[in-house]
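wait is this the right file?? whatever heres the structure
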């Protein structure tokens, strides 16, 4: 992806992404804890980066939320946008229905490139581009049982993940692209989560 070869964009990502993700956390915080909606906010930040870099005419964001593994279409090609904190697994489908988990695993194969932000506060993570070809090769080498992390039956399934083993292999693969990011928090006043909406209510 050409975004990773543009020095100006690389510098902007390294400078701005930690702050923007910190804002997303602040807006998603309740009772001292970050809510699950932070994932959607981070995804919106990354898609906005794609629109900024490639133009709205080349980035289709009108993708049904029920479409698995596709969050945006860029230059006609599907792209999955993911974020993780630390080295955990990457969720490929959310579901609380065990039958849906079984069907998903049965028919699963990599279907799109992945844009992945790995967040490591006070450490180095990065923004990665993992082509579908890299995923497919690892999927074939590891096999479905090692490539996917599937919840145990009888538990409350929250979805299926790409396993930590597969993720580590992806991020090390020479076919993946990376912008290294030092995830430092900025000491600034963060907005209250309801501040933006309160402002709209206060307008005449």
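ok assuming it is, sequence goes like this
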């Amino acid at each position: 992806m050409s975004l990773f070869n543009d020095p100006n964009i690389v510098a902007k990502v390294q400078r701005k992404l930690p702050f923007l993700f910190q804002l997303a956390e602040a807006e998603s915080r309740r009772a001292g804890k970050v809510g699950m909606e932070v994932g959607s906010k981070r995804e919106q930040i990354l898609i906005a980066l794609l629109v900024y870099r490639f133009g709205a005419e080349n980035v289709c964001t009108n993708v049904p939320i029920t479409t698995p593994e596709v969050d945006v279409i860029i230059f006609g090609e599907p792209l999955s946008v993911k974020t993780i904190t630390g080295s955990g697994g990457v969720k490929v489908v959310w579901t609380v229905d065990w039958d849906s988990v079984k069907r998903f695993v049965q028919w699963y194969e990599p279907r799109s490139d992945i844009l992945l932000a790995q967040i490591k506060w006070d450490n180095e993570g990065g923004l990665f581009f993992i082509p579908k070809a890299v995923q497919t090769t690892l999927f074939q080498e590891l096999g479905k049982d090692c490539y996917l992390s599937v919840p145990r039956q009888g538990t409350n399934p929250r979805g299926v993940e790409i396993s930590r083993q597969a993720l580590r292999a992806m991020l090390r693969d020479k076919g993946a692209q990376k912008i290294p990011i030092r995830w430092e928090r900025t000491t600034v006043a963060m907005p209250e989560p309801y501040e933006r909406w309160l402002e709209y209510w206060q307008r005449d």
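Residues 7-28 form the longest helix (22 residues). so i think its the right one actually
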